[in-house]
Structures are given as structure tokens and as C-alpha cells.
UniProtKB/TrEMBL annotation:
<dbReference type="InterPro" id="IPR005467">
    <property type="entry name" value="His_kinase_dom"/>
</dbReference>
<keyword id="KW-1003">Cell membrane</keyword>
<dbReference type="GO" id="GO:0005524">
    <property type="term" value="F:ATP binding"/>
</dbReference>
<keyword id="KW-0472">Membrane</keyword>
<dbReference type="InterPro" id="IPR013767">
    <property type="entry name" value="PAS_fold"/>
</dbReference>
<feature type="transmembrane region" description="Helical">
    <location>
        <begin position="167"/>
        <end position="193"/>
    </location>
</feature>
<protein>
    <recommendedName>
        <fullName>histidine kinase</fullName>
        <ecNumber>2.7.13.3</ecNumber>
    </recommendedName>
</protein>
<dbReference type="InterPro" id="IPR029151">
    <property type="entry name" value="Sensor-like_sf"/>
</dbReference>
<dbReference type="Pfam" id="PF00989">
    <property type="entry name" value="PAS"/>
</dbReference>
<keyword id="KW-0418">Kinase</keyword>
<dbReference type="InterPro" id="IPR039506">
    <property type="entry name" value="SPOB_a"/>
</dbReference>
<dbReference type="InterPro" id="IPR003594">
    <property type="entry name" value="HATPase_dom"/>
</dbReference>
<feature type="domain" description="Histidine kinase">
    <location>
        <begin position="391"/>
        <end position="526"/>
    </location>
</feature>
<keyword id="KW-0902">Two-component regulatory system</keyword>
<dbReference type="GO" id="GO:0005886">
    <property type="term" value="C:plasma membrane"/>
</dbReference>
<keyword id="KW-0547">Nucleotide-binding</keyword>
<dbReference type="Pfam" id="PF02518">
    <property type="entry name" value="HATPase_c"/>
</dbReference>
Length: 549
């Protein structure tokens, strides 16, 4: 025979357990109610027996019959009273406790089965006692003559059967109330179980435990950050990756997003103020892609992907592609020069061929030499040389202003290349936009003032409208069409973060060339011991950046 199994479903377990509890509570309540009722019925029966006994003892004829030991008269009067009152027995005794009346005439003349002394001594007594007629509620009083002398006792009893009948008469009402309470409890339990069934999707209790364990393992094992928020925007949970990516404090659970994250696009996305899919955001030096999904309970689950390494790889790929394009442009230009030189030689124009070779061989060398002379930092010089070649192929002239000078003293050349490279790319891209002049120009200014580095990038393109000069630094905002391999709207945001992290500032306005001019100030960006005298550098700052904000 198979043993019955405890239900596995949550709602079934709740229904069964609550039913058992409700039935048990109802039964206990009914029992606790019946217990005092039984005691109350006993007390009521004893008081009723005492009242009958007192009424009987007040009859002078019965007292005289007890004095004369006239059992016939006493039996007659006692039976009349018993039948009239419904008592189980009315027993009259003399001073020796000998019965003068009894419901069983055969017991007349015998001593009573219970102690008559308390009543014969003048006291009234009530009690539940076991006698010849079974368990009864009794009332005993002394039987007195008119002069007050005690001549016997009157004992009246009401049987337990009578009390039980009264109690049984009350049971249907008690059971009806208990049944109504039980029905209401079962109905409430059923409704609660059905609601729980919907909320738990009818899964087994063991499955809930397994799901919790699996959820914890999954949350802390995946490489994506995950943050759960309640309807008020407070953090409910966050996995290890979210703590790492967002630099969350240990006590972030239960706190609003705006308390644990700095103001910006990332906080706006997490709080739901900015909507969209795969939204890029910058936090410190990290590039994150954020997605926010609203739950049925008006909460939200936010996933975070770290694209910092990918962005680095993409930027390296862009740099490689830039160099490739520069080499391709040089190769194309070299082929054209070789064809031109071959034509001059075939035509016998030897002097013109020599002049052509001299002129062409010195052009690129002159550009590279000029950049190297003004920009001594090898990383920045290499960047400018590559950008100049690519810009030239796109019909844009990229030049370093005459008063520029950047010594080989940068504390963080990588950050400097990122800042300058992004600004140059934006300038060159803007010259390909509608409304740009045919001959585009991008000018770069780099100056050292003590340990402070001043950078300027300006072009003769359409410029940046005044109302957008703050917004262009927001993460994810762009006026250009995003390529397939990467999102737009991160370059200037990263530039601003890098500049602000270094304690500097960046601004944009309209420059002398008529287009946009970006001005960057980076304090403590250069090694002071490797600089030229500060006075000379500071003297060159004003003419180079005149009008910069």
C-alpha cells in the first residue's frame, strides 16, 4: 500500500494546511465554549435544586411529618413537589438521616447515601454528588419547625441526564455557529490558495527553493550586471558584476538610484527617465550599454554590459583603419607620381622630372618635420601625422597652428591621444556634412603653460548651434548616423569625462575660421621639469587661443 504524499504545489499545501488549522481551531473553540457551558449548567442545576429544597422546607406540614417520622405524609407531599417541579428526587429525612420519602419506596427507612450532617447542622449545601440515582446536582437545606428547631433535612436532586439534555439542546446552535465559522475560514483559505496559485504560477514548493538557488547562482555567475528596482525606484538586489561596474556601495539595497549613482545619463536610464534599447552610458572610464525592462509589479530589471574593452578594440581598429587608409592614400598618390615621372622621362623632359622628384619627395617630409618640430610627444605627433594623411585624402587640410608647441612631457599620453583624436575626428566628419565648404580646414593648437596643457581644435565647417553646445557632450546624443559596428554619441562624452577626471574643462564656441572651436584645459598634465620656461609659453597662449571661452 502506497503512503499518501504531501502535495507538492504551494497552493495545495496552503489549502490543506489551512484547512487542517481551521478545522482544529474551530473544534478547539467549540470545546472551549462547551466547557464553561457545562459548568454553568451544573451551577444552574444546583441553584434550582437548592431553591426547590428551600421551598419544600418552608412547608410546615412536611416539618411536622419529619418530627413525627410520618413517612406516608412525607412521601405524599415530597412526590407532589417532585412532580410539580420536575426534580429527579425530593428526599426528606429525620434527624438521624433516615429517609422518610424517596422515588423508590423500597429505600424509605434507610439512611441516605450522602452525608446529611452539614444540613442537619443548619447549613444549606449545593453540590454535584454521586448517589443511588447516579450523578445529580443537589441542594440540601435543614428542615425546621415554626419555632426554628431542626427536625430533619430536605435533599433535592436534578439528575445529570436532565443537565445533559439541556446541553445537547444547545449543541446544534453551537455547531451551526462553528460550521459557519469553518465555512468562512475554508472559503477565505480557498481564495488565498487560488491567488497564491496564480502568483506562484502553480509551481511546486521544492521548485521554488531550486529556482531561488539557481537564481542566486545565475545572478552572481553571469558576466552582465543586473539590478532589480521596485516601483519607487529603490534597489532591491544587484549582482556582483553590477556592484563592480557601477561601484555601488555595500548598503545600496533599499536606497534610490539617485542616492548611489552620480547625476547623468546612467542614473536617468536606471530610474526610467530615459527610455530606449541598448542605450550607451559612460561611468568614469567605463562604457556601458544599458537596457531597462519594466516588470508586472511596476518595478524594473536593468541589465548592464561592459563595452569598455570592446570600445578599446573598436578604437584600435579605427586607428588601424585610419593608418591603412593613410597608407592606401600614400600608395595611390605614389602611383600617380610614378606615372607622372615615367611620362616626363619618356618625353625626354629630364630637367622637369628632376624638379618634380625634388618637389614631391620633400612635401610629405616637410609636413612630418613641421609636426615633429612643434609636437615633440611621439604619440601625439604620430596621431597628427596619420590624421593629416587621412584628412588630405578626404580633401581636408589638417594643420598645426604656428604658435603651437607640445613638449614630450605628457603624464598620460594615452588619454591625451583619446581626447585629441576624438576632437579631430569630429572636426573632419563635420566638414563632410551638408553645407560645408569645398576646401575644408582643421587647425590644431597645443600649448604648455607651466604644467597646464591647452588644446584647441577648430574647423571651417557649419559649427555647433548655441542651443546644442551643452547637449553634444551627453552620452548617446549624436547628429550623425551610427555605423553598424558601434553606437554613436560616446566620443565627446568620453572626452568630457577624461577632461573632468583630470580636473580640467572643455568648451565649444564659434572660432575665427567660422566653424566649431573646441577648447580643452588640462591642469597638471605635463611634467614641469621637462618644459620650456613658463613665461615664454604663457606669452604664446593669448594669441593662439584668443576668444576661447
Amino acid at each position: 500500500m502506497k503512503r499518501p504524499h504531501w502535495p507538492r504545489r504551494v497552493f495545495a499545501q496552503l489549502l490543506l494546511s489551512q484547512t487542517v488549522v481551521t478545522v482544529g481551531v474551530t473544534a478547539v473553540t467549540a470545546g472551549l465554549f462547551l466547557a464553561p457551558v457545562s459548568s454553568e449548567l451544573d451551577r444552574d442545576a444546583m441553584q434550582r435544586a437548592l431553591s426547590i429544597a428551600q421551598s419544600t422546607a418552608a412547608d410546615e406540614n412536611i416539618a411536622l411529618a419529619a418530627q413525627d417520622r410520618d413517612s406516608a405524609a412525607a412521601q405524599r407531599d415530597a412526590e407532589q413537589i417532585r412532580l410539580a417541579t420536575g426534580a429527579s428526587f425530593v428526599v426528606i429525612t429525620d434527624l438521624d438521616g433516615i429517609r422518610l420519602s424517596h422515588t423508590d419506596p423500597a429505600r424509605i427507612g434507610q439512611r441516605v447515601s450522602t452525608d446529611p450532617e452539614p444540613a442537619l447542622s443548619g447549613r444549606s449545601v449545593t453540590a454535584i454528588q454521586q448517589g443511588t440515582l447516579g450523578r445529580t446536582a443537589r441542594g440540601k437545606v435543614p428542615l425546621r419547625l415554626a419555632d426554628g428547631r431542626i427536625v430533619g433535612e430536605v435533599s433535592v436532586g436534578i439528575s445529570d441526564d436532565s443537565i445533559r439534555r439541556r446541553m445537547l439542546g444547545m449543541v446544534p446552535g453551537i455547531l451551526l455557529c462553528a460550521g459557519a465559522g469553518l465555512a468562512a475560514g475554508l472559503a477565505a483559505t480557498l481564495l488565498l490558495a487560488r491567488r497564491l496559485k496564480r502568483r506562484t504560477h502553480n509551481i511546486a514548493l521544492a521548485d521554488i527553493s531550486a529556482l531561488l538557488v539557481e537564481r542566486e547562482a545565475m545572478l552572481h555567475g553571469i558576466r552582465e550586471g543586473m539590478v532589480a528596482l521596485d516601483r519607487r525606484g529603490r534597489i532591491r538586489l544587484a549582482n556582483d558584476e553590477a556592484f563592480r561596474l557601477l561601484a555601488l556601495p555595500a548598503d545600496c539595497v533599499g536606497r534610490p538610484v539617485d542616492e548611489v549613482l552620480p547625476p547623468g545619463r546612467l542614473a536617468d536610464v536606471l530610474a526610467g527617465r530615459t527610455e530606449g534599447a541598448d542605450l550607451p552610458a559612460v561611468l568614469g572610464d567605463r562604457v556601458l550599454v544599458v537596457n531597462r525592462t519594466t516588470t508586472e509589479q511596476d518595478g524594473a530589471v536593468v541589465t548592464l554590459r561592459d563595452r569598455t574593452e570592446l570600445e578599446s578594440l573598436v578604437r584600435e581598429l579605427d586607428t588601424t583603419r585610419t593608418l591603412t587608409e593613410a597608407l592606401r592614400a600614400q600608395d595611390h598618390e605614389h602611383a600617380n607620381r610614378m606615372h607622372t615621372l615615367l611620362g616626363l622621362l619618356e618625353l625626354g623632359l629630364h630637367e622637369q622630372a628632376v624638379a618634380f622628384i625634388s618637389e614631391q619627395s620633400g612635401s610629405h617630409a616637410a609636413v612630418a618635420a613641421k609636426i615633429a618640430e612643434q609636437v615633440q610627444d611621439p604619440h601625439v605627433a604620430a596621431l597628427l601625422a596619420g590624421k593629416a594623411a587621412v584628412a588630405a585624402e578626404r580633401g581636408v587640410r589638417l594643420a598645426v597652428t604656428a604658435g603651437s608647441h607640445l613638449p614630450d612631457a605628457a603624464l598620460d599620453p594615452r588619454a591625451l591621444v583619446t581626447v585629441l583624436g576624438n576632437l579631430i575626428d569630429n572636426a573632419v566628419d563635420s566638414l563632410g556634412a551638408p553645407g560645408s565648404p569645398a576646401g575644408g580646414t582643421v587647425e590644431i593648437t597645443a600649448l604648455a603653460a607651466g604644467s597646464t596643457l591647452l588644446l584647441g581644435v577648430e574647423d571651417n565647417g557649419p559649427g555647433v548651434p548655441a542651443e546644442l553646445r551643452t547637449r553634444i557632450f551627453d552620452e548617446g546624443w549624436t547628429s550623425k548616423e551610427a555605423p553598424a559596428h558601434r553606437p554613436r554619441g560616446l566620443g565627446l562624452a568620453m572626452v568630457r569625462r577624461l577632461v573632468e577626471r583630470a580636473g580640467g574643462r572643455i568648451a565649444v564656441d564659434r572660432g575665427p575660421l567660422g566653424g566649431a572651436r573646441f577648447t580643452v584645459e588640462l591642469p597638471e598634465a605635463l611634467h614641469p621639469e621637462a618644459l620650456h620656461p613658463a613665461a615664454l609659453a604663457e606669452a604664446a597662449v593669448e594669441p593662439a587661443l584668443e576668444g576661447a571661452p
